[in-house]
Design brief:
The protein is an alpha+beta fold. Helix content is about 20%, strand content about 30%.
């Protein structure tokens, strides 16, 4: 868990429907704080020093034998390295399968209206970072739990809103993050009502020898060895 006395480098409220992009430096932690009971926050992330390397949803779930992201899990890149470690999680509601909202999914769910959607937000955020449509890929979603029925149909698990819950993402390299604060396409509410979340960047305490994220299994140990090698002088 992030030391509560660690220096806060930056904090900012992301309004409902908005997007946010920033480089999270190695040695710092991004905390996403659910202020009012979120309908979902979607994220893309890339190696900020070489954006051709980016989050890989398939490897993240396959290597860790789980579609559930929570404390102790990591987010893998498509080059076998670790982008983020999850060092704390009080929500337990995160999704690797559901994708993101689009103009079409919003219209089907909410009817006609000027509903902000995550795909458009991602494209806006990517453009500001010199990237574009070719850099879109499967994303991760926070503050929504998704399950899969026996016939393969995904559905959101109804959860009580958890204002004040958070997830801590420790950057293991310099990570470019694009966030979209729009409702998850499978969120059970029929009302478009995205809530504000707060992004907090803090200094990270050094990992201890028994760090859960770094020692979970042989594959993650290799992932960290590959990642740390990028920063050997």
């Amino acid at each position: 868990m992030v030391d509560e006395l660690a220096k806060v480098i930056w904090e900012e409220v992301i309004p409902g429907g908005a997007y946010w992009s920033r480089v999270i430096k190695r040695g710092t932690t991004l905390r996403l704080l659910d202020l009012e009971g979120s309908q979902g926050v979607s994220m893309l992330c890339y190696n900020a020093d070489n954006p051709i390397e980016r989050y890989n949803a398939a490897d993240t779930t396959k290597i860790q034998f789980s579609i559930v992201l929570t404390q102790g899990k990591v987010l893998y890149s498509d080059m076998g390295r670790v982008l983020f470690s999850i060092t704390a999680d009080t929500s337990g509601c995160h999704d690797t399968l559901g994708g993101c909202s689009t103009e079409q999914t919003n219209r089907a769910k909410y009817g006609l209206g000027e509903w902000r959607n995550t795909r458009a937000n991602f494209l806006n955020g990517l453009t500001k970072q010199g990237l574009g449509k070719k850099d879109l890929m499967p994303n991760v979603n926070f503050f929504v739990r998704l399950a899969v029925a026996a016939d393969g149909t995904p559905f959101a698990v109804a959860e009580e809103p958890k204002p004040g819950s958070y997830i801590d993402l420790r950057a293991e390299m310099n990570v470019l993050v694009i966030l979209s604060n729009c409702p998850h396409p499978y969120h059970p509410s029929p009302v478009y009502a995205p809530k504000p979340v707060k992004a907090i960047i803090k200094q990270s305490p050094p990992a201890t020898p028994d760090d859960l994220c770094r020692t979970a299994n042989p594959e993650v140990i290799r992932g960290f060895q590959n990642t740390d090698a990028l920063f050997v002088n």
